[in-house]
Amino acid sequence: METIETDVAVIGAGLAGLSAARALEAEGVDVSVIEARDRVGGRTVNEPIGVGKVLDLGGQWVGPGQDRILELIPELGLETYSTFGEGLNLIERKGKVSKYSGTIPKVNPVALAEVGLALKRIERLAAKVDPERPWESELAHFDRMTFDTWMRRHVRTAVARDLLRLAIEAVWAAEPEDISMLHMLFYVRSAGSLDLLLDTEGGAQDSRVLGGTQLISKRLAEGLARPVCLESPVRRILWSGDRVMVLADGLRVAADEVVVTLPPVLAGRISYEPALPAIRDGLTQRMIQGSVIKTMSIYPTPFWREQGFSGQSTSADGPVSVTFDNSPPDGSPGVLLAFFEGKAARDAGELPGSVRQQLVADCLTRLFGEEAANPDRYLEKVWADDEWARGCYGGYFPPGAWTSHGRALRESIGPIHWAGAETASEWAGYMEGAIQSGRRAAAEILAPGGAPV
Amino acid sequence: METIETDVAVIGAGLAGLSAARALEAEGVDVSVIEARDRVGGRTVNEPIGVGKVLDLGGQWVGPGQDRILELIPELGLETYSTFGEGLNLIERKGKVSKYSGTIPKVNPVALAEVGLALKRIERLAAKVDPERPWESELAHFDRMTFDTWMRRHVRTAVARDLLRLAIEAVWAAEPEDISMLHMLFYVRSAGSLDLLLDTEGGAQDSRVLGGTQLISKRLAEGLARPVCLESPVRRILWSGDRVMVLADGLRVAADEVVVTLPPVLAGRISYEPALPAIRDGLTQRMIQGSVIKTMSIYPTPFWREQGFSGQSTSADGPVSVTFDNSPPDGSPGVLLAFFEGKAARDAGELPGSVRQQLVADCLTRLFGEEAANPDRYLEKVWADDEWARGCYGGYFPPGAWTSHGRALRESIGPIHWAGAETASEWAGYMEGAIQSGRRAAAEILAPGGAPV
Questions:
Q1: Cis omega before residue A264 (within 30°)?
Q2: Is the predicted pLDDT of residue B191 greater than 50, yes or no?
Q3: What is the pTM of this model?
Q4: Cα(B173)–Cα(A66) distance, rounded to whole angstroms?
Q5: Quick check: A381 contacting B, CB < 8 Å?
Q6: Is the ipTM value over 0.90, yes or no?
Q7: Residue B398 lies in a domain
Q8: Which structural domain, as residue segments, surrounds residue B121?
């Protein structure tokens, strides 16, 4: 068994861990990054599709307001390009497919008015939540109910509820009944607004990274003084006031401090000796990873474009709830991205891959016509099956968790610091949030008690 | 490292694991029980207080309807005795302590009527839930809301809500906002009725076990062919279709099948190779262990009895929410049991033990007078701090979990079977439920596909 001596051990070579390592190295700190997978990137992963092109099987979008990642990308010699969005969008409900342009689907005006009012209410409430300490907000009582409860109180038409459900599924990969209303408000606040979360152009789905988002992590890792220790799942952390010993498969790392970047539920599966305080353990019992299956169907050309469609659609009928044109920037090959989210992802996750593929083909055919029925190639990633993610896009809290255990999400314990997209207070759950969290953890170590970065 | 070859490995030497082992051995199956702690009994544990007397720091009560444990106790040569309940009970709210007899506290009649109506509604709803498959019930939509949401809809007076909150805390060691309404209904149904759960005489708090409930596990363990392997926390389970290798600290057990009796969150912290299906992993992300601190204050005599008090009280002011006379059957010494539950337990769990002790003394003094201020001895067990329990009394589901992942609570996976009080369909969360679950898991192994016991 190899033993490494270092200043800081970082567990997880995703954007959070690599950002923490980079920030620490910049200040002359010796860092070792330990990763369970055989690759860096965490919940970002490139899938090569030939001739130097790749598709993202994980997180893929960046957008305005995500200042850290938008600055980092060119700094690493990488480029972004706009998500394809020209043409008409589609919405499917009760077997009927309708076209629309812009972000507002054509449904009945009462429902649209209701959705508009609900979104405005949410924005107004979210503005009052302190994303650093949502449990102290005057709105903490929203932690007593699910989003579903709130929605049923404020939204009466079935169409409007369907649209809100689709929004919840699209952002949290969960159902309205899964999520604390306070968590919803926190998350919206951490990104700035719900519009930003939902929008493509000008929103969180605005742009993509040329060569795939995993390149960001690869470049970050290449820039580190020490190579990342891959295929080294961490099993135990022995710790005292000022020293840690991290035990991974085939590796020990002795350090002064450790940054754990795993989603809380996975961080809770590491054995800590001595055992962690109850509030931290309880936190790891409460945060749930979302359910999403990302699929991509590859065609010779993006045929939908010729028919005037953007490739963007949303379906209340499912099981695919959202699609995008995910073709490479030159439009070749044509790629339709289709998500199973929340309940649909859980259900589809139980099916054989071939059945799932057929479900996707059926959905895409209903939306984009017969040409969608037989893709040249089908790719998918069932994130709940990934042992080192156990769900995506990120974690969410059910009711009662923020107010009882929220404090333990970021609060360090002795030499143990917590990072990861779930712990971000800006763009929680996003790549931007992962970077923010990693830099914040590094700052804790560099200037204990100092202000967050 | 010792290696054991056996037919069935059982993880956890609490009532579930030992009941499974006993049922299997009775049919000639070779069993090895593996336990993380240095003792058997799980969430039951005896604390000797001298002259052969003991107090229970964990589960302690049995009552009518719990047929398996009531039959098992005499079978093991043990006896029960009635919980002390003679005299007046007390209720404290807004600084005022009132006496009452029976189970109905003296509060204003409107509030009492509201509570009565709410309890009746709960009983009526619970009767419609199939405890084997609550997610298939016609009431599955109650999984969309917290109990708090339901309560606020049906109960208007603050007094009535306080009383219902106390009931939730007493049964689930959680707050109304933590629990799915469907989980509440499932749990009530699994015990038979809410009255049974709440009552002392004739209910779930009816009787105690002479010598302490841990004796049940000790006797069960003594009756097994192989000694329980203590101090052997299980870290990994390697499995295939028909074989398992259980890796514990200092021990390997090779077997044909394994019964995992840990609460789901702790079962989720074992590393399974191959990794378990997403639905099972997701289940372990969703069940939360309750928060309770059990304290006992020991006095020379049960002085409250002489003043006409039963020792039973409930306080809406807290932080102690419930007390009982927990003296040994001969009334010597006098023991007042006081629980911190739910939020109060989480808050008090963060305090130094001495501060907590003072909080208990203050509460008991308000209720039972100055004589309660200075006990001879104070005992406590902070269950959330216990690494192998991480909460008590048992696990509960927040909204959205039963309907999305409930099926994975009991469904075996290859050679891996699930037991433990959390998996019971009768008296879920109770010692009776633990026994039921262990026997059910044994039956699965003995007669695959057969009817549950």
A1: no
A2: yes
A3: 0.96
A4: 41
A5: no
A6: yes
A7: no
A8: 104-198
